[in-house]
# Entry
Amino acid sequence: MNNRKSGAIAMPSVTYAMKAQKLLTSKGYTCDIQRISGSLTKSCTYNIYVNEDADIVKKILLDNHILIDGMES
Amino acid sequence: MRIFNSNACSSRTGSSRRYNKPAIVNFDNAATSFPKPIGVKTAVIEALTKYGGNVGRGGHSLALLTSAMVYDARQTVADFFGAELENVVFTYNCTHALNLAIKGVVGNSGHIIISSLEHNSVSRPVVALSKTGRVKYSVAKVYDDDERTLQSFKDLITNETKVIACTIASNVTGQILPYKEIGEICKARNICFIADGAQVCGVIPIKLSDGINILCTAGHKGLYGTTGTGLLISDGKYEISPIMQGGSGSASLSLEQPNFLPDSLECGTINIVGAASIKAGIEFINSITLEKIFRHESMLCSKFISNLSNEVGIRIYRSPGVNYVPIVSFNVDGMMPEEVAACLNKHGFCLRSGFHCAALAHQSLGTEYGTVRLAPSVFNTENDIMRITSVIKKINKNI
# Structure
């Protein structure tokens, strides 16, 4: 994954993953989406990878009312 | 009932004698719009040829490409109605959306108020809920005077009232209810306002900020999408418990339905081609503007009414001082609505007759045999109106 700086952030669904990607891209970050099975949430989900510290990314998402499922440091 | 001269039905009269089959003119756009814009046809072909994956069901290229298209479609809908995109739920039609909303909010108990102009897509789910014995409902009478209509809603509110579910505009007469004021009443009393927008979306500007908590609409009518499409758009204030469960592409190891929108209400594969068509339909509307669409279709209805206004024997179901979307119901004295529609069909005009799946509305109108309904779209022309009114005059004169 290019530009990966943070750990993964697990999103509840592809809709939220894409919403997060749009938001973060608009703020100048690089954000990749990857389908994941059985990792953070013990389920099928979509992780996002951002070239920023995961805690900062998490705060940006929550401030914008975008649900997340979990984080991987 | 007068004896009808079947010659009046013939499309082989006068200058149309040379025609074997008259060109079809669709005035049944309140049922489903036709023709569809070129952009919608293109979007459907593109969806069938390019977006071959499933939404949120994989990480491969096709799945992600398709998911991105559906995301864009969801965003287009959200922008059009002033919603958050995750609160846009793709359904199979407006009835599906209304069932999800009404049953999902009311649950097993409570009181619902509907209007006297409802389509069966509102009245039937409500009546079905009432059969359980713990859900009660009341019908608010709609008047020509909005203040009286609002009072009739207010008078029916009880401590148990959970939901007001009503149409924004009647699918029979086109009468627009004072929906913004109904929204205010609901907000003041913490009642969920579920609005049936089937006849207004794509015709007049509708936003959740009009006081609507949950907007339900068809994708295939004024929004010009394909059949098999509908929308439920929530402001997120009221929880909508799913009435169906199944695969959502998310939380796959859980045996319970996800509790977040849109996944909680989108069970199984959505109509991906339909989502593409709705997106293209809304883009078509935006390219023309709602204002121009409404003005054009209303002008056609006004011409229709004025052309027939001096005809003795034709009854048009409109009242002065009332706001209407571009729908006109009418009858020809002494003829069944189906006879009139059949005659018009022989001349190439497609209009729906009968009761329009709206038992309550026809009870309110007192139309024992129903009506004939003219519902133009942006594609109809003044010439279409001149031709159809000419035929109606002949039918009325029984010639």
Q: What stands out?
A: The interface with chain B takes residues 12-16, 18-19, 33-38, 41-46, 65, 67 of chain A (CB under 8 Å).
